[in-house]
Amino acid sequence: QKEVEQNSGPLSVPEGAIASLNCTYSDRGSQSFFWYRQYSGKSPELIMSIYSNGDKEDGRFTAQLNKASQYVSLLIRDSQPSDSATYLCAVHGSYIPTFGRGTSLIVHP
Amino acid sequence: KAGVTQTPRYLIKTRGQQVTLSCSPISGHRSVSWYQQTPGQGLQFLFEYFSETQRNKGNFPGRFSGRQFSNSRSEMNVSTLELGDSALYLCASSVGQGADGYTFGSGTRLTVV
């Protein structure tokens, strides 16, 4: 059973702070890693993808991948109230993407 | 370009009925996957279609079925509805088998009463 684990939260951070979201996975053959953002009542939206070890930055978002530790993280710098959402980690190996249950992020003014 | 279109957006059905949901992927995307999302279970994979062929199937009973047409549009069908089938059904479009990430449709909210 391939698993993707995330802390359900909620993770509460003040506006302007760095939010750190974490994800671990069990399938060592995993090759593609994704972060989706899901606002309440909406569908998930792809915000980051990462395929190799290290960091990948896109605007205020940084994805970090450590395949040896089977660990993926998402950093959100200068967090805004509009970042309040559930963040889903997805891992793709040889089968189909497996999703974590998501971490709820609350950014308070 | 147009996104992923799912119809209908909302459905209310009674137990025992059947339902058909539709999904039109992004133009040029040949892979369509279906997921069920509930608060308790998160996103659960139903099945994936690529070029009209079912490539993968999740751990759902045979009451759940799907198909894909030559224009890549996909339908999923649920027969003999149960209360536990109430969920958000999401269609995800991708170029390949999700290895490049998904674009999700807005979903169909199914309520079984």
Structural class of chain B: mainly beta
Beta-strand content estimate of chain B: over 45%
Rg of chain A (CA only): 13 Å
Count of DSSP H/I helices of chain B: 0
User: What global shape of chain B is seen?
Assistant: globular
Judging from the principal axes of the Cα atoms, what is the shape of chain A?
Answer: globular
Output the structural class of chain A.
mainly beta
Distance between the termini of chain B: 37 Å
Q: Which range best describes the helical content of chain B: under 10%, 10-25%, 25-40%, 40-55%, 55-70% or over 70%?
A: under 10%
Largest sheet of chain B: 7 strands, mixed
Report the count of strand segments of chain B. 11
Q: Give the overall pLDDT of chain B as a whole number.
A: 94
Percentage of residues in strands of chain A? over 45%
Q: What fraction, in percent, of the residue positions of chain A are helical?
A: under 10%
- Taking pLDDT < 50 over at least 5 consecutive residues as the criterion, the unreliable ranges of chain B are none
Order of helices and strands of chain B: EEEEEEEEEEE
CA-based gyration radius of chain B: 13 Å
Q: Provide a count of the helices of chain A.
A: 0
The largest sheet of chain A, given as strand count, sense and whether it forms a barrel, is: 6 strands, mixed
Mean pLDDT of chain A: 94
The H/E string of chain A reads: EEEEEEEEEEE
Give me a quick take on this structure.
Chain A is mainly beta.
